[in-house]
Protein 1
Amino acid sequence: MSNNKTKASGSFLDKMNNLTDTNLLLTITIVIFFLMYIGAMIFQGGGFLKPQQFFNLLNTNAALIVLACGLSLVMITGGIDISVGGVTALVSMCCAVYLDNMGGNVFVSVLVALAIGLAFGAFQGFLVAYLDIQPFIVTLAGMFFARGMTTIVNTKPFNVANEAFVALKNARVIIPGMGSVNRKGDYIDAYVEIGVIVAILVVIVMFCLLRWTKLGRSFYAVGGNRQSALMLGINVKRTRFLSHLICGLLAGIGGYVYFLHVGSGSPSHAMGAEMDAIASSIIGGTMLTGGVGNIAGTLLGVLSLGTILQIVSAAGLGEAWWVGITRAAMLCLFLIVQSVVMARKKK
Amino acid sequence: MQKKEVKKTDENILTRMVRNQMFIPLLALAALALFNLIAGPEFFAITLGTNSAGNPVLSGYPITILDSGSELAILAIGMTLVTAASGGQDISVGAAVAIAGSVLLRMLCGGNSRPEELAMPIIVAFLISCIVAMLFGAFNGVLVAYFKIQPMIATLILYTAGRSIAAWINNNELPVITDPGLSYFGGFIPGVPIPTPFFIAVICVVAIFLVLKFTNLGLYTQAVGINENSSKLNGLNPQLIKIISFVILGLCVAVVGLIKVSRIQTINYSVIAKDIEMDAILAVALGGNALSGGKFNMAASIFGAYVIQFLTQTLYRFKVSADALPAYKAVVVIVLVVISAPTVKEWFGKMSRKFKVKEVA
Amino acid sequence: MKDNIVLQMKNIHKSFPGVRALQGVDFTLRKGEVHALMGENGAGKSTLIKVLTGVYSKDEGDILLDGHEGPVAIHSPQDAQKVGISTVYQEITLCPNLSVAENMFIGRTSGMGQNWKKMNSDTEKILKSLDIPASATQQLETCSLAVQQMIAIARAVDMDCKVLILDEPTSSLDEQEVEKLFKLMRDLRSRGVGIVFVTHFLDQVYEICDRITVMRDGQLVGEFEIKDLPRVKLVSKMLGKELDDMSDIKGEQKTYERKAGEVPVLEAENRVSDAGIKPFNFHIDKGEVNGFTGLLGSGRSECVRAIFGADRVTGGTIKMNGKPVKINKALDAMKNGIAYLPEDRKGDGIVGDLSVRENIILAQQVLRGFFKPFSKAKQYEIADEYIKLLSIKTASADTPIKSLSGGNQQKVILARWLFTHPEYLILDEPTRGIDVGTKVDIQKLVLKLASEGMSVTFISSELDEMLRTCSRLVVMRDRKVVGELSGDDLNQSKVMSTIAGGDK
């Protein structure tokens, strides 16, 4: 019997070995996320049993999902971008100033956000891809530049009062059939914010880009082995440039989604968001060394991180530091797991 | 011997000067000094006054540069070694300073946030904070050396968690130390008008130069940073040497933690040593050291640290707010990395050759 | 161009700083032939191929292709692919993280979208037709090296190439896999593809090739029909000695005889490392100079690396002067008085940015320990001593080693190891890529050291050198020891025939 068992587990291991790296790490992520969420439902009950809890997870993390998609893309291509948090803050501040102090309209403010993101992406991408400078140093400078610029644009945090914008911010998309009954017995509809719709669209577009286009596959090729990719006839420089450009664009979009969620501009907005985005990508199975990753995993990574933080605060560890420590511990854990899993697989 | 002398003078004095690693920081210093001189020489004024405790103190921009630049110089020592050995930078130093400072306060207070008396001698508390900081350094080092994670990603972990850990160590309380003994480290020793951090920096600098002279630290870290394979075949243990460089940086962090805490006698977890990692990396780069590792020049890094502080003070002078500083420094970083990028150097080489050919023609 | 010629390279020149890698090389490839490109390391084969595939730009010369008017310009691997030149390199140049099918098609089809279904079914077809045991959806990394190599070839073949370059494709394949590859090559040959085949395995050359072009020191030695060039003659051409004037120079070295009661300085038994060599036995006596010989890739370097502990040692024992010692890493070996000058001077030897002085003292400094650095004055004294002793040409002891010429770099590394005063010195290709004068210096030095009682193992691609210095040669082929020659057997023809193996 025991013999049989080892045999079965052997074939299971074989199957695991046959999985592509991307699918292997994705599988780990899916399992972890569901275990965690179900665990939270069982042990903490309450809010976790209501669908709205899940939708709130989306509402609060919509911006992060967009940022993490961009991060996954650069990481798959073998790079890194830590400027996204700073860009988010800069986008919020610029849009806030434009909408309130300059009386701009909402549509143009979206363009402002996209332009800022694209500018960062293009400049950083140029330095990384064509001048061959370490992406970390370039985007570290980008992060500090964005943060500094944010305070130069406006020092004080303030809420946006522009009517059209506030209407957009408060718009709710009702999810039919998922509502719940509150203590008074009233039925409350489940909802998501506009930002969530944007985030879902971004996830779908990015997923399709990476899965079903030649460009998407060349990101993987370049991340897997730059030299080989070159030999296989891929324009490596352009591919790396595009990865940063798209990541910058997504930082712009993510920045606007964030802005839409908080409705204010502040130099301290999105502090450490780059770190959350990187952590989510890594938890979602994107390899730091490049070439491996999946947008679906990234989405789950964001939700896993969000859930963990909810659990931590629901468990009474409300102090701010637990959030930071949990985050870092998750990142550390997954980095080491990746390093070990991949080292063992190589053997 | 004779021959060598002749050969040396053969070389153009100008090219030799330009090649010297001190050239860039010196040039930057000269440019900044000139700029400030034109904008108004009162920048360089130093006045002797007395502080609230009635001790004679020197004040003025140059003194502030010496004072704050010293913290940076101490960090630059460790950052130079880490850069040389691992080819990457530690971005968690600011967060680690918060941890070291928090440990120091916790030890001094012994749980009571407004202690009448210190719970232990400052030196003991400092040693404990050193050990903690070095352990965190070793943690970074292990991730880099054994798990082969890029240094900046590995240290990103502590970068995020550091300030939270610092808050957690003191239960998020802000202990205040009233004992004047602590204030000496970041302020002035009674009767001495020069800020103490400068002396601490001098001690650290002397210490590192003694270490570099009487041990093989310099040779080993450079060898590992330049050619890991070759170092291994020469009997070195590259992993161990990388970890050691991170541990030394941990020690530097603890010293800076002491100075920072001493300055305000308390701690602000989210503000203490904020963005200092950027300045430390800048100091190394400005000192002409390759951020990709290998050969280093410690003196140039330390000098670079003071030049960076000079830049900071210059920006302050023109009413740039502390929060906006990073934007300006980011520009400096980009300029530095772009001009030192191999592709750009190659391009410059080509252009100058073309230029010369044209001249001849 | 004549009808049956598909590719012609004329008078190709290529220089790198300090090296003239190709000096007026001609190369002609006909339709439907397998053409071996042979030569020892540094002969210029890979440079020639890289010029052809656009990795390097040539300084001079023309490349003519069937179907193109006048010389074609090839500036990148993509250009080469476009004109029908496909290359399969020794190191797999595929992306390990992608699926087999993607590796087959990425970078060479037009359009934006990725049609997985079509790609996978096309791939399955190709895999099946070429009998490659892999599935289209499998991740490349999970295939064996051999299969990966075949997939690379399948990709090249499917691109409808006229010229297929195989740069040492068989070094990681076993016999059956090689057989499959040959079947594939014959098939392509019959379809009229011209195949350039670079290999170090002589058996394979004689099994599959129609013609051989031999290169040496960046120059063309000649193009031969396979039937006109028997094995021994081929080896002699590659090594640069005409058979006719093989007067069998007997070396200047004395035949070594062990004194009674003496034990070997070093004795290795069943030593093996993870670098892919078969376990081997080896011994060396005091004051003896011996050598490992064999063609490139025969495992001669891996053997000495296994002795020194440079690769991960997986088995076997080592005795020094009769006592068993544990040598698992370089430091162990150094402590036991072994020194190793590595084959790859740039990658494993020099510490480029450090000065000549620091490079000289490095190994001894590590042996002395962390807390006992030599004083600056002492360092200069040592450096000057060795610079003089080995007549190293350097501006000063403080010059970075990377700015020295190859020969002088090598002397610095030699100085580094001599300064550790080793009992046993291993020199792996100490004379590669350096000028004749320095070569002679190094040979003389080796003999002098041996006469002073040092044991030396000397590895070189140049047989002359080995014969002049060594009193015993361990011959290797295909990663195992196949013979040991000493005394009267130490002559060119005997060594060559042992290296070549077979009956011819």
Protein 2
Amino acid sequence: MNRWTEKLTFWRIMFVIILAVGMVAGFRRFYLGLGATTGLSDQVPWGMWIGFDVMSGVALAAGGFTLSALVYIFNLKQFHAVVRPAILTAFLGYILVAVGLLFDLGRPWYIWHPIFFRNPHSVMLEVAWCVMLYLTVLAFEFVPAFFERLGWGKAVKVMKVGTPILVILGVLLSSLHQSSLGSLFLIVPNKLHPLWYSARLPYLFFVSAMSVGFAMVIVESYLSNRAFRKELERPIITDLGRAMMVSLIFLAVLRGQDLIGRGGLPYMFQATTEAGLFWLEIGLGIIIPVILVAIPKIRAHPQGMFYAGLAAVLGLILNRMNVSITGMAAKLGAYFPSWEELSISIMLVALGFAAFAWAVKNLPVFGPSPWTGTVVITPALETERVARQAELQPARVSIQ
Amino acid sequence: MDRQRALLIDITRCVGCGACSEACKTANNLPPEPEKALSATAYTVIQEKGDYFVRDLCRHCQQPTCVSVCPVGAFEKTAEGPVTYDGDKCIGCRYCMTACPFSIPRYEWTSRAPLVRKCIMCSERVKEGKMTACSESCPAEATVFGWRDELIAEAHRRISENPDGYYNLVYGENEVGGTNVLFLSPVNFADLGFPTNLGNAALPPLTWEVLEKIPNFVVASGVILGGLWWLINRRATVDELRHQTGESHPKHPGQSANIRTHQAGGESR
């Protein structure tokens, strides 16, 4: 117990330092302007705040719509316990994307302009609208956790009625803007390296976001479990891992087919920085997680699944950075983020972690919830759950 | 499309005096110091490429990428031909800078309320029937102002009259769907640093072909998802009711059975 409090204090000190440095960087960015405080230039107008904070941030929040769809539309009740943490991740993720945009936009006080000035030919407008609307949907999806905490049973029941509509809206809006983040780059066929430029970017972005949504839920369930001793049944993590593996294999097939189809295979075997980054991305994001999940012993072990999920998350971040920054570097010029860009991004991640931790501690995020959606968990399913857990016991013992 | 105004820049005639960039700075109230590359305070510059002087400036595309990508519609392709910019709408997302095939737009990086800057082909003067400041100031007639179709004809006439003196291409006649700034060069355009991989198709359709599918996608997917939800959850509710009333179901829902088989085949190995 002593060691535990020490650890918490260490992370708290780290958090305060990250916050302080981030705030100094934020002040400098608004006082001195983008030029003096970022690595951005006329040649490289998009950097880390777009590639990491926005592109990766949105994709990593995809677990919210995939899991709510699996549970509420497809009635796969085994995932029920992780829907709310996934929705919380998505909600926090999108808030942080919006905050990150405030730093990146040149005139952030006009962030509301897309509501009134609309160019229907712009992918960016569609992304802006979908993100705004989906953030609203996520707020509605998560607010029952507050109502439960406050004991407002009636409000919870009212929200329950709207669940299917919210979930369907969420899936629609997510599939639109997840893919549209890829569509943004359809307009740069002459700038983006052929390992990444493809007419199928929207599909690739959608499928990769879907698979990394599962990965993120695995990662955060594991970390919350360690930090707060919020016990999560092992079969859920294993099922999430399987879902991740299937969607990653689907992604690999799509990417392979796409590369072959447009004659991009030779680029994979050239001695270029791009080819190196491509293999790193594929290795981290697809090969390692698929192999880890495919091994039954690792699949049954939460820590193994954590590493599989983490690799998929890192691979996805690298993919989004490659598409939005490094894949265009050969045509546009070199870019390296400034310390202000780095520390503001780190601050946003830290704020996300802190908000997640606060919510897990203070709200019914993990564990049984009276807000069980549209259908009650049947006794049959409950027995099944117990049976499955019993089946898994030997595996855990043998590994530990 | 109605006849549009355009510029024809003949690199064989340019002597590199810099009168055009100077006149541009005066016309747009920019600081007069000469600059070597495009910037937020230089909408056109003359760059020395080997033995030749090459002007750089916005090409005022026939189907401009910047106009199509801007979420708030800050860019406009005017009827006369110039592509203009309304800073009051701009939110500063810089998608125009990323998307421009010629990488022309520049940003006021040092400002606290930065705007995008680029040549607007003296749109106010052009609207009044006057020529652009750069073409007016050019002593060598290297930059001439006129109707786009007439300038294209003139460019081809110059090439056919002196085929040894010109590279046989009017750059901008067809590139990315055609531009309103046309170039004639004595050598291959690639040697002068012009992007030669752009193709002749305009870029905006690349994103529009995806965007135009959205309304149908939303309606179709909404119906499918709603239907799936109703079918799957209705079955579960019926099973639940049967369960409560003690009625046995001949075929128990496949779902839980599936999980069990799956589980047995997977983890227990």
Protein 3
Amino acid sequence: MKKFAKIYMALVLFFLYAPIFVLIVFSFNESKSRSMFTGFTLDWYVRLFHNRIIISSLINTLIIAVVASIGSTILGTLAAIGINSMRKVPKSVVMNITNMPIINPEIVTGVSLMLLFVFFAARMKFEFGFATLIIAHITFDVPYVILNIMPKFKQMDPHLYEAALDLGCSPFKAFYKVVLPEIMPGVISGFLMAVTYSLDDFVVSYFTSGSTSQTLPITIYSMTRRKVSPEINALSTIIFIVVLIILIIKNIVENRSAQSKGAGA
Amino acid sequence: MKLKYFSAPYLVWMVIFIVVPLLMVAYFAFTNDGGGFTIKHISAVGQYTNIFVRSIWLSLIATAICLVVAYPIAYILSRMEKHRQGTMLMLVMLPMWMNFLLRTYAWMAILGNNGIINHLLTVIGAQPVKLINTSGAVVLGMVYNYLPFMILPLYSVMEKIDKSVIEAASDLGCNSFSTIFRVIFPLSLPGVTSGITMVFVPAISTFIISRMLGGGSNLLIGDLIEMQFLGNSYNPHLGAAISLVLMALILVIMTVMNQFSPDDQVLM
């Protein structure tokens, strides 16, 4: 049984990593061939860094991800606090609507926002671009922030806030000193999730970006349409390594905090 | 100030950017260019029954394969020693952090007519096979992209199963197979249903995987919708009608499936 488990695990990992391995190997391939390795080169990396479209769409992606995730974290944190103190019926109505962008297929979210933007673009004379992208990203990010924070209220004593008010805190101070520290882990994980979803999003951005501002996934998509462009391989390799480093750091930090918690208990 | 007013900015946002856009989809689906009521577009969706059937069929196959492949992986992960669990889970999840366009692009290079598999086949003297632009390639792309979405909820449910329950089952005479079927599987059902949801919904609505790996001959619902909004056949009314039918379809399938779920824990 143990041996079977190991072989099975290895097979699935092979299935998951073989395509990525192929991308990495062929990013160093001299020719444009995607099946034969003809010789080693770093040319594609050099070309990648000189590709203005890729660099500018990377910058766009980073700006949008940062703005959208900060915006959605603020909006979502306030929302979660408010929703938590709602009565049962309005609470479940709001939560059901909040879940919509998560449950709905991405393409429906993208198309519905596109319809809204088209409708207003004609009447209010604005164009698709940064603004529509950021609005769209905040819209699909906020639900994740709210869903990350809501469980934290269940662990928190509901009377803490009132106690702070009774003891002379202003509502703002009570929120800042009492509520916020309690829900902070949820706020942070919600923020990180929003960053990840924003960086990675293709479908919703595709429908809401217009032609002026492209994000990195949209640029990647138009590159794959032109069939052979080994710069994509180079880009994939860099992204893979960045992700790998981030996850290793995350793993180490989590292990450390788990250990220190274990030592404390 | 009452705490519930904190949510006011979000409620405004939610109405404008979640509720209104969805209502607009419904509005566009039932109107023509002049704004008059019509069911022309909704009934036109009927022409595409074959595409709907193909989408449902391919995404069901992909979901089933994901479930069969992911279940043992989730089980093995959940039974590992704690310190190895984190690393192995990270290894399984790592590919999901790469943009799915890149992951799908990789398969184009592997399955292509001049791709790696066909190259290897000609090297050993076999005939090249048509792999890309087939429905099989689309299913493979779905399985590859969404497998982690199945593993994660299964793992998180199985990890919470009390070890003593499993020990009790074997003490009471279960062998390892009946332990799995009569104890672990029923307890893991919430994970099964949320895993199915998380694979099936993106699979049935994808347009990238079918376009990159399926060629022109394997259109799915997602392609059809995309073509109405950004493609050559610009027709937002028909696109909205198809989107509405897709949403209804998913709602029906999910409702049917939730009948089998012991509680309503659908999301992660």
Protein 4
Amino acid sequence: MSASVLFDVPGPRGRRRQRIGSVVGALVVLALVGLAAWRLGANGQLDPSRWAILFDARTNVPQRLLEALLNTLEVAAVGMVAATVLGAFLAVGRLSDHAWVRIPVAAVIEFFRAVPLLVLILFCFLFLPRTGISISAFGALALGLTLYNMAVLAEIIRAGILSVDRGQSEAAYAVGMRKWQVMTFILVPQAVRRMLPVLIAQLVVLLKDSSLGFIVGYLELLRTARSLVETLNFQFGPIYTFQLYVAAAVVYILVNLLLSWLARVVERRTGRSTKAAATTEAKLPADVQMGGGGGTV
Amino acid sequence: MEFLSENWGLIQSAFLTTLSLAVVSGICALLLGTVLAAMRVSPIPALRGLATFYVEIFRNTPLTVVFFFLVFGLVYVDVQFPSRFIAAVAALALYTAAFVCEALRSGINAVPAGQAEAARALGLDFRQSLTTVVLPQAFRTVVPPLGNVWIALAKNTSIAAGFAVTDLTALLQRLANANADQLLLVFAAVVLGYLVITLPSAYGISVLERRLAIVR
């Protein structure tokens, strides 16, 4: 149902009311933004010299932020690749005909989906060193992200495999393929193709979740912003705090919007492709995108 | 086990903090999300644009960053939350509302167009047809996704631990530092605390789903 079913195309009076409503609404929003800007200005936060530090290469700030962005992307990339590979194995395992494979795999998936991501990361960070496995903040973060996302991706890929038209596997069996051949040559490629936009959407989630590295002390964007604030406060007093946090948030939003946009482009391309036509519609549920603990138990 | 009974008071209060964080911010997010969803289908373009902007921004910002801004950033516009708990509720509610809105919007889209057309044919205006015809049906179809959002919210409350709210995860960090030998037990207790919230919720949602599902 499209939204326009809910109301008539407005007539002249309705349009006038809407225009008045829009103007009043815009004024209220502008007033709020203006109020915030005025308070910021009154506190001297909008002073250009304070913002200039973000672009001044001599202070090392842009370099540090760039490095932090690369760190964030690095941990997200490691997590994504590992989680996708493991997730594909788990998805296939959960669809296995053998109960001794299916049940443990299902237990693993359900367990890692049920535990909050932060608890998983803390587990890797605090517990593994005690057992003699030395692990860095990067390792703990990457491992936590991998374990959590592999379970989420396993469910996504499983949904993708199940959404492939039954005729595809029947035809494959009819031409004499074995079970593993049907899975690797027929079902998984189509499922992955079908799920590509969802996988990219999950990358956005993973990138967002990498900000949890802040809590275990991995130098990702947020942590770097914080440590920069601390060193700069030491040198100049607390004048750059707000600017650095805003910069970190803006970088996150821009990178994620870029990825979301990429997901939409891929979705449109795969939607047009004839090879994906044999599958039924499958979508990422809204809750998975919440990250940090999305998904059902 | 002795260790657990020694720290029982701490565990109980941490569990209650997590639970109340989830419940309070869940209710706020549901209200705000419903308003946002109504805005996204409203006839006024400015409201639609505003709601879309809100959802896009919050869906693409890490929850940790939202927390950061409410806890450390709002001071610079001279706004101060009375306590860290309320700041955490605000962050969770603002973030989750965007996802509630998306879930509800998909529910509104799932209501057959004939329903809204019939409502309009009867002479109901936008507000009436939305609140008496479309939204009640939309809510019934989005019970599973909304339930999942609720469970995700319950798990996301763990991030509040990084911002000085003494919830289960904060307890984990505190006990882990104090009792290195009992670490596995601490983890088990904390994970169990979360499961006590999420597993009954998942069951309740599936019951609710069966009771409320609309057979078309």
